Amino acid sequence: MLSRVTLRKALQLPQWTCAARRTLTASARLYDAKTPIRKGETTPELKGEEDSLGLAENEERGLSQAPNRKEIWSRSQKPRAVAMSGPRFEQTDFSLQPQSMAAIELIHRQPVRWTHERIVACEGGGGPAGHPRIYINTDKPEIATCGYCGLPFTQKPSKLKQQIPHQSSNKIKPKKAMPSSSTTTHNIYSFLLLSLLLISFFPGLFHYLTTLPFSILSFLFALRSNTAPPSSASAWVPTDATTPPSTNDRNGMSWFQKQFTLPARSRGSYLVTEHVVGQLPELREYRVGLLNLFVQHTSCALSLNENWDDDVRADMSDALDRIAPAEGPRGEELYRHSAEGPDDMPAHIKSALIGASVTIPIRDGKLATGTWQGIWYLEFREAKHTRKVVATIQGEKA
Hints:
By secondary structure, the chain is an alpha+beta fold. Among the domains are: 94-173, Sandwich (HSP40/DNAj peptide-binding domain), CATH 2.60.260; 240-328 and 338-397, Jelly Rolls (Sandwich). It is built from eight helices and 16 strands. The chain has helices at 4-31, 44-53, 102-106, 184-201, 203-227, 273-279, 310-323, 344-354, and strands at residues 113-115, 119-122, 134-137, 144-145, 152-155, 163-165, 172-174, 243-247, 253-265, 268-271, 286-295, 300-306, 357-363, 366-367, 373-379, 385-397. The strands form five sheets. Strands 8-9-16-11-13-14 form a six-stranded antiparallel beta sheet, covered by helices on one side. Strands 1-5-4 form a three-stranded mixed beta sheet, with no helix packed on it. The chain has a three-stranded antiparallel beta sheet with strand order 10-15-12, with helices on both faces. A hairpin with a 2-residue loop joins strand 13 and strand 14 (366-367). The protein is elongated.
């Protein structure tokens, strides 16, 4: 048989189970409590807003402006009455919209900032009156404006019209040409480069081109002097061709000029009297006068000297070599100018010492030289050269 204590505990077990169930139910109500919303109950503030929006009591309320921004339209917190002011709206002249180029030139009364960049930076002028630097995208067809100061920016179009309507009147005034990159500078640089290449590779051609205008002018003056009537003073005649003798009627004086060449010789002294007389048969026509021979080169010379013994000419060449040697006693260079060879500078020195011309009197159609005198041609270069001589005769014909 069960004891009395055990029986009592068995009788109290249902009571404990009911108490635990009541405790669990009470704790669940703390997390699952729901307060039913009554549709008829609203606060006075919200009820007034619903009436203003025209909502019925049973209609669901949609999204609307916050109560503290009810009268605000723009992000700058400006009232709706003044939100349409500022450069974006106030400076727009809609009457000019249909006109040509109005969207680019005349839509803003403040000058448009032209740019070639896709993104520009605006600081509003900087300083205390400016604003933080912001970057504006101009890669679009319309004008972009700064959100702070309203400065307009746009990309410069590739082709602008030549005429735009003027702001103050309906007259069309010609637009000033926009500054464009000129090719004048490029042409000057190209011409200078071409001239430099011409001087470097073709110095002779460059010299010919630079002296060509002067040669043409001298030729024209020569033609004019030849066609002009004879005057008291004899005019200059060209030396590149035989000139017919000109006679002065007052005193019977006559001029004649001719150019001829000397035989090509290497370095040495040569007697050329017979060659000169053979080239000038006109000497026989003059009773009295002067013959001037002028060599047109700087590395040879003309002189009057011994015409009998050949050793005199050889000794003359040796003496000139000792006066102006081609190199020093040890083979060293003596001269700075050596572009045309080591014998070029000594030839210039010898030519300056001897001279480039001689003047010989004429008597009865012959040269009035002494018994032992002859015309020398002194060549100072090693290579053979053909030398040109200009002969000028002035005198009275027989």
